[in-house]
Amino acid sequence: MSPTCAVLLALGNAGFDVWMTNMRGNTYSRGHLLLNQWGQRYWRFSMDELALIDLPAQIDYVLKTTQADKLAFVGHSQGCTLIYMLLAEQLDYNDKISVVVHVGPVAFIEYIQAPFLKAQPVIKSDQVCFRRQLHNTMVPCYSHISGCSCAL
User: Fold this and answer.
1) Burial environment of residue 52 by CB neighbours within 10 A (0 to 12, 13 to 18, 19 or more)
2) Could you report the per-residue pLDDT of 27-73, keeping only the tens digit for each?
3) Terminal Cα-to-Cα distance of the chain (whole angstroms)
4) Are 20 and 51 in contact (CB under 8 A)?
5) Buried b / exposed e across 56-79, counting CB within 10 Å, b at 16+?
6) CB under 8 Å to 99, separation ≥6 — which residues?
7) In the beta sheet, which residues pair with residue 132?
8) Average pLDDT of the chain?
9) Whether 83 contacts 48, CB under 8 Å
10) Over the range 36-51, which residues count as b (16 or more CB within 10 Å of their CB) and which as e?
């Protein structure tokens, strides 16, 4: 494999069926059928919903579409954490995953600089407020955390 070739492209070129998914809250998730992206309800989710609702839906969709019994899971960053949460909480998914590969897993938070990210282990989702930001988007704002400013 060439150092300039992306891993997923190399896997696809090698004949593997590659599915790339996104999680809610990013640019590509803005087309909700019932909720408006400017409303708080649209943004009311946590890692629990990502791991225990969204990820199983993605896995089940891929398995149903491909008619495969299992899939190999390659997670990046947050995806590494989400698969552990899912496999620990919903044990039946351990039978649906043949192997888990982590690329850039989140392992340590001691070097994170952003106050709102450092506070994630203790933040409750009901403490989140939302503010309109640049580029017509909304982002979570943790204004109750010392040193955090919503004016990005």
Assistant:
1) middle
2) 777 877 888 888 888 888 888 999 999 999 999 999 999 999 999 99
3) 39
4) no
5) bebbeebeeeeeeeebebbbeeeb
6) 72, 73
7) 138
8) 77
9) no
10) eeeeeebbebeeeebb
